[in-house]
Amino acid sequence: MSIVNKNTIETLNNRFESFIDSEIKELNVIDPTSFKLTLNAQDKVKDFDWTGLEFNFNGVSDAHLVDSSKLNFVDTTDGITILQEDSKLIFGVGSYKNKSSIKNSQLFFECASLKYEEISFIE
């Protein structure tokens, strides 16, 4: 797994085109402060072929979750925003500039650590 931090956020956004039109596939609760989100996104490195990604959120202190049956309806037209403010990482569906606005997202996490891993495309 790769660590997401202030230095890697821009690389992720460039490689996956800010996750515009990605497909959120699964959200799992590991424990009250840990979650796993899987999605498909187009990968610039692979000539925009679709690839699967698994994000692991740990030390979650705030979140807005969506029921698993509604994940297919989460609109990623504006992509996904990943920010780092202070010592927290904030992940939200949509295009946002700061922590206070990202809390309006359909799906968001504020966490102490965030990791991701490339996986196979998810049907």
Domains (count): 1
Ends distance: 22 Å
Order of helices and strands: EHEEEEEEHEE
Approximately what portion of the residues adopt beta-strand conformation? Answer: over 45%
User: How many whole angstroms does the radius of gyration measure?
Assistant: 13 Å
Structural class: mainly beta
What composes the largest sheet?
Answer: 5 strands, antiparallel
The dominant shape is: globular
The overall pLDDT average reads 95
Tell me how many strands there are.
9
Strand adjacency order, main sheet:
1-9-4-3-2
How would you explain this protein's 3D organization?
By secondary structure, the chain is mainly β. It has one domain. The protein has helices at 6-15, 99-102, and strands at 2-4, 23-31, 34-43, 49-58, 62-64, 80-85, 88-93, 108-111, 113-119. Strands 1-9-4-3-2 form a five-stranded antiparallel β-sheet, with helices on one face. The protein has a four-stranded antiparallel β-sheet with strand order 5-8-7-6. Strand 6 and strand 7 form a beta hairpin. The longest helix has 10 residues, at 6-15. It is globular. The two termini are 22 Å apart.
